[in-house]
Hints:
Layout: E1 8-13, H1 16-26, E2 32-36, E3 39-42, E4 47-52, E5 69-73, H2 77-89, E6 98-100, E7 104-110, E8 116-122
Parallel strand pairs: 1-4, 5-8
Antiparallel strand pairs: 2-3, 3-4, 6-7, 7-8
Amino acid sequence: MQRTSIDHIVLLAGDLEKSVAWYDAFMPLVGFEKTRAHVYLHADGWAVELRPAEEGTPPYGRYNAGLNHIGLTAADGKAVLAVRDAFAAKGFDTPEPQVFNDYFTVIFFRDPDGMRWEIGHIAEAG
């Protein structure tokens, strides 16, 4: 089987202006550069594009069919906390980190529509 990689993800926003403000603040903290209006390119070469949702469509639902969240890996637990602290310094609500089994640190950030972005790090179990 041929190996593939992620090229891009398109997210539909209920309020594009509100979402652009959130993504403009968040994406540089996790390795994305804004390359044009509503498009953010990751250092690994894949992109996230925001587009407006059709009016009257239901918002994102965490347990609905379809995408649940997007997970990113950080270099270490301190990097996870650094993203949280930098995002909070920009005036955005930031959840507390969750630690599982004493070696997995994760934070779930929610965009204006509720889409969850996971930033996590798994330390060596020891």
